[in-house]
Design brief:
Largest sheet: 9 strands, mixed
Radius of gyration: 14 Å
Distance between the termini: 22 Å
Helix content: 10-25%
Number of domains: 1
Length: about 140
């Protein structure tokens, strides 16, 4: 088993905890899902890596400005299950890599990532998340 190197744009399988789940007192995610690594930076002299991820979901967003629909060809390339997928900007999880919630892809032994988002799509996502965070319209839920 080899863990991937977390880098911005990498899509991993992760036990993402939504803010409404945390508000109910849950400490574990209801399900594992694809998530895009948004930030991966060394934060301590010991080399601890801090990671922030954004969830990918089938559920259409209540606020269309809080997400971007992923193109169907990209979803197929990444191996995401059928149907439409949205990458959310408004809810993020932060954790020390690899954390307790990194999961292997279904049907695999030790593969944790689906692949990379295209650079231009990742830049669109990054800018949208920064705008939401600056406007204080986004949540980063610590998962350590």
């Amino acid at each position: 088993m080899t863990l991937p190197v977390p880098r911005p744009g990498l899509v991993i399988r992760y036990g993402f905890l939504w803010s409404h789940e945390a508000a109910r007192g849950q400490t574990e995610a209801a399900k594992d899902r694809p998530c895009a690594v948004i930030v991966a930076v060394r934060k301590t002299p010991e080399g601890d890596l801090r990671t922030i991820v954004a969830p990918i979901t089938h559920k259409p967003p209540d606020d269309p400005a809080a997400s971007i629909e992923l193109p169907a060809p990209l979803c197929r390339t990444l191996g995401l299950e059928g149907g439409r997928h949205w990458l959310r900007f408004d809810e993020l999880n932060g954790f020390a890599w690899p954390g307790f919630d990194l999961r292997p892809l279904p049907g695999t032994e030790g593969q944790y990532d689906y692949g990379m988002l295209p650079r231009d799509l990742f830049e669109t996502v990054r800018r949208a998340i920064l705008q939401r965070q600056q406007a204080q319209r986004g949540t980063i839920l610590p998962r350590d």
